[in-house]
Amino acid sequence: MKSKVKLYGFLLFIILLSLNLIQYFWLDGTSHHFRRDRRDQSITPVDTNVSVDACAKIHQGYLGKNNSDIYYVDYYDLETCFKTFKFNATQANKTINTIKGILENFYPFLDQDKEPPQPGFTFQSIDIISKLEELLNTQYSTDFQFITDLTSLLFQPKDGHLFFFSNCYNQIFTFDQGLSLYSIIKPDGKQTIKIFNDVIDSSLIDCEVVTIDSRPAMEVLTEFANDKTFSSKDLGVRFNSLLSSLSLENNNIRVSSLTQQFTKRRILPEKPSISYGLTCNGSSSTIERSWKIISNFYDNFTDSNSYWNSFCAATTTPSLLDPFNDFGDYSKTYDNMISKAQMVFNGTSSRFYMQNQTGIALISTFESTVNDQEQMKQILQGFNKLNEMGAKKIVFDLTDNGGGFISVAEFVNILLFPDTNPSFPSDAKVTDLSKLAIQTATTGQISGSIFETQQYASFSTLQVFNTSQDFIGNNVYTRGNTQVSYTNKFIRIGYREIFRQILGNNPPKYPWTSKDMIILTNGICGSSCAMIAQHLAELQGVATIAVGGFAETPLSFASFAGGQAFNSYVLFGSLIEIGLLDNPLSPQPFDIFVTLAFPILEIYSVKNDQEVLEFTYRKADHRLFYDEKSIRDPSLLWEQASSLLN
Ligand SMILES: *[C@@H]1O[C@H](CO)[C@@H](O)[C@H](O)[C@H]1NC(C)=O
Ligand SMILES: *[C@@H]1O[C@H](CO)[C@@H](O)[C@H](O)[C@H]1NC(C)=O
Ligand SMILES: *[C@@H]1O[C@H](CO)[C@@H](O)[C@H](O)[C@H]1NC(C)=O
Ligand SMILES: *[C@@H]1O[C@H](CO)[C@@H](O)[C@H](O)[C@H]1NC(C)=O
Ligand SMILES: *[C@@H]1O[C@H](CO)[C@@H](O)[C@H](O)[C@H]1NC(C)=O
Ligand SMILES: *[C@@H]1O[C@H](CO)[C@@H](O)[C@H](O)[C@H]1NC(C)=O
Ligand SMILES: *[C@@H]1O[C@H](CO)[C@@H](O)[C@H](O)[C@H]1NC(C)=O
Ligand SMILES: *[C@@H]1O[C@H](CO)[C@@H](O)[C@H](O)[C@H]1NC(C)=O
Ligand SMILES: *[C@@H]1O[C@H](CO)[C@@H](O)[C@H](O)[C@H]1NC(C)=O
């Protein structure tokens, strides 16, 4: 896979602790429960009746290309290659059993997912377990169709932490239209779609996209946001995720990898091309764009057998699968498009600007190249700098922030509001297996295990939980007409010590109050980003602005608060670590190369302890919309945000 393990926002099960677990899991040769020798499972489920091996054809095409050319795969060859692998009912049953075992034991939202959405949210309630069982009763002929249905089933709760991705079908090839889109509101109030970038024909930039495949563009995109995306329970936020927008990523202002989901994909599109009806400079035209399909792994297979063995069969060196579009043009940055602000601090995961007397804090809580403490130090320096420069107001730009370290989120909360409890109350599901895991890790004092209780303190008393029974408690709630048990509500204690180390004895005292601050996002502010935005908004009364979405429809300022991201690899590593993988209660590792990402904790509102934040609709106080300039120059939005503070 990727030589560097890229840890993108949504995969962020990312507290250092978990990183340690992964290392343990990957490097410890003794975790033989999970080790499988590839030779043991060389049965490749290839349909021998297929006359031409389409996977081999792709490899041959690649070998035949001229050296300097990029090799683009033919859509139908790839579709045929994927469909070469026959459905295996035994294997499908195992895959479903693993997913069920993980979700039933550890996914806190399994029952609440059955409840209808709060007004403002758009998703269909779902009983995941019974839908999974229904899949097993479906007659599939190809593995591809089965896996595709499974992926889309798990998108249905529209939780950015919850997704199922296949290495075989979602990581080896990428699909690119060569153009990307944005949306504006025209002077007559009508919303329209425009072309943001086009690497094939730059004269089309800023043309209006009136139709897509002969239907109104807005209608097609709304439908796609409904059916094919999962990053928020708010449809307007999902709509934003289809289009382009800028954020701080990898040290630069660039088009966020969480966006452009309509025009850059990792799931085989339904057909080989898309047509766009355009209006450019007053005249109409139609263009047809084929998907550009490429791979970094042409050398790693020669035919369908080797394709299956390299990419689809279970592996001892799993990598984290990336569900987003981050295969685009890394080199294109927008740093010098910032026309109306002066950069005063350039951190790796945060940037600070001055715009007249307003300080701008651009925070990307996730950064794979620096650890959480380094991020905290940089954020501290950035705010100190704004203070030195005499900033009277603060605009937080948290656009396209898919989350990261929870510790960094809490640090931001406590840095600006030192008298606050920076955490949200968390809890975890209590089941026979999770209880056993908590008891085993706690008794065995497995520090570093997510299940060990002495790293947690009660949210209300701040007393450390010394015994697993203290931690587990006796809390039964009704969710989706089902009685479900959860642990006592807790916070993590380790972070407090880190904050003390970084802030020292004289924590800074800034002059800003909540009235001087405003949060700007496009709703794609998830996970630990949501923990900053929700905390500042709920507990401090900081105003919020959401940009984009649908005209005349309110928009959330944050999404998928979840609790903490986790995934199947890390979970199996944790179960191995405490010796429970062989327990009959434990789900078993996948037989195929897939990841199930899921939240393992949930968080609640502080003010209303009945409200699970994942399911709580909170619209922004103010709305802004992009225009042809501000879509490429966030400082124009900062200016508008700042003026709302007067
Ligand atoms: C692909 O092949 C290259 C070169 O042999 C190797 O380094 C890399 O690990 C392979 N990748 C995968 C996903 O098999
Ligand atoms: C191949 O096709 C024949 C005739 O269509 C069918 O009887 C046979 O079961 C197929 N074989 C496999 C392995 O699918
Ligand atoms: C490779 O380049 C040569 C010379 O430019 C051209 O004639 C030939 O068609 C090219 N082959 C392929 C497979 O593109
Ligand atoms: C189906 O999958 C099972 C479990 O992975 C495997 O043991 C079996 O050999 C497979 N069957 C075929 C026909 O490939
Ligand atoms: C599927 O797996 C379950 C649990 O292991 C087992 O009881 C059942 O018999 C399996 N069904 C099929 C069709 O293999
Ligand atoms: C539209 O007009 C702009 C500015 O004059 C020009 O750069 C662009 O190429 C034109 N696009 C088309 C498709 O005519
Ligand atoms: C700064 O303030 C001046 C005067 O108040 C105003 O004209 C100018 O547009 C402002 N500049 C920015 C970058 O906001
Ligand atoms: C900020 O720092 C990064 C890494 O040091 C660098 O790549 C980037 O160009 C800098 N950006 C600006 C605007 O100075
Ligand atoms: C756990 O032990 C610590 C240290 O002895 C103590 O301060 C704390 O109150 C205990 N927690 C509870 C919930 O009793």
From TrEMBL:
Instruction: Please report the stretch or stretches of sequence annotated as the CPAF-like PDZ domain.
Output: 175-297
Q: Where are the transmembrane segments?
A: 7-27
Which InterPro entries does the record match to this protein? ClpP/crotonase-like_dom_sf, PDZ_CPAF-rel, S41A_metabolite_peptidase
Record's keyword terms, sorted: Membrane, Transmembrane, Transmembrane helix
Q: Does the keyword Cell inner membrane apply?
A: no
Q: In its keyword annotation, does this UniProt entry include Transmembrane helix?
A: yes
Highest taxon in the source lineage: Eukaryota
Q: What is the name of the protein in this document?
A: CPAF-like PDZ domain-containing protein
Q: Which organism is it from?
A: Gigaspora rosea
Give the classification, highest ranks.
Eukaryota, Fungi, Fungi incertae sedis, Mucoromycota, Glomeromycotina
